[in-house]
Amino acid sequence: MTTTRFAPSPTGHIHVGNLRTALFNYLIARKAGGTFILRIDDTDAERSKEEYVDGIKRDLEWLGLHWDKTERQSTRLDRYHAAADELRAMGRFYEAFETPTELDLKRKKLLNMGKPPVYDRAALELSEAEKDALREERGNGVWRFKLDQQRIDWTDGILGDISIDAASVSDPVLIRGDGQILYTLASVVDDMDMGVTNIVRGSDHVTNTATQIQIIEALGGTPPGFAHHSLLTGPQGESLSKRLGVLSIRDLREAGVEPEALLSLMARLGSSQPVELRLSLDEIAEDFELSQFGAAPTKFDEQDLYPLTARKLHQLPLEAVAPQLIEIGVPAEKQELFWGVARDNITTRKDIPGWWALFRDGAEPLIADEDREFIAEAMALLPEGPYTRDTWGEWTKTVKEATGRKGKGLFMPLRKALTGLERGPEMADVLPLLEKIPAKGLAK
What we know:
The protein is α/β, with parallel strands linked by helices. The chain is 43% helix and 11% strand. It is built from 18 helices and 12 strands. α2 (50-63) links the parallel β2 and β3.
């Protein structure tokens, strides 16, 4: 059975980059009728916070990315230590004591010699007495996995055939000096124990994948299928790293972006398919194929979310927004007409109250000096309400006959006087919604 996972760290809010990973893994599982696991990577007890766990779940639920089971890595520490013991017993795990400064000097020396900055495995030459002395002096060392220095090959679901020479990669640190289990070990053990069959993540993990494949094989497991999607950049190709704080799912939701807009964009961005609004995850999953995605960095512009959001809102029936209309005070008898007018003239739901405020309170008239006399005469001809959809046509016909104005010279000044806007909904629909018309005070 196909099993995928999304494994965020609860050290902050998830952002668009995280979402891409979550969505791809979700779609693969759903399309295959498989299992999607939400795995909270909370082994870093100091930085992990429960508020972020709650925030991650809230964001995924808002998007409709419902998981089949939840796992917490902090509850599995004994299992990780048992796996570490297995690696020690087979001679694939060793303790190293270099300080960060010493490692940095080694890296610089190798680079100056034109060699790859790979850890030299000096710790393997230490005697037990030397290790004891270093522990006494520096405390516990880090634990590194000893790579077999051969090529590591796999066929990537997006990048194609990958081959990495393990001799060009440093033996990865899997346990820190303070005893913290790091992501690479915890992830490998979890993927094996939880039967994960497919892993999609960012292309910055390619080298990490190579080392994980060896760890999985050392522990007697079978590597899952890997795929590495391109990394997102800003619209000009700039790094998103400094902007991810303002591109969190929480902030986009608060800005009024609709979940379907975000999902539709993320499911196609960087692929050979055009971005199209889809109103359900089933629709998105139907034509989702990893093979259609490329390796090149993918430009993301949050402004692209707003036309998709508007398109979704334009299709919403009244019942979908009725609770919000009640909340802002739209009378029941006017809700259908109001929504018919408002939905084609909004970008996000946050725009809805502004339209109701305009109809309820009246707009500040926008009148050019040369139109003042015309507006005063027109307002004197406007009958008392209530108005119907026919009122606009009847009134403008009367005004045309009285003033001789026609076309844009007739309709535009009236629109601006009644709504304070140069463009907007059909005035035949607007007039019945206007509860106050300040411009009437200008009548002769």
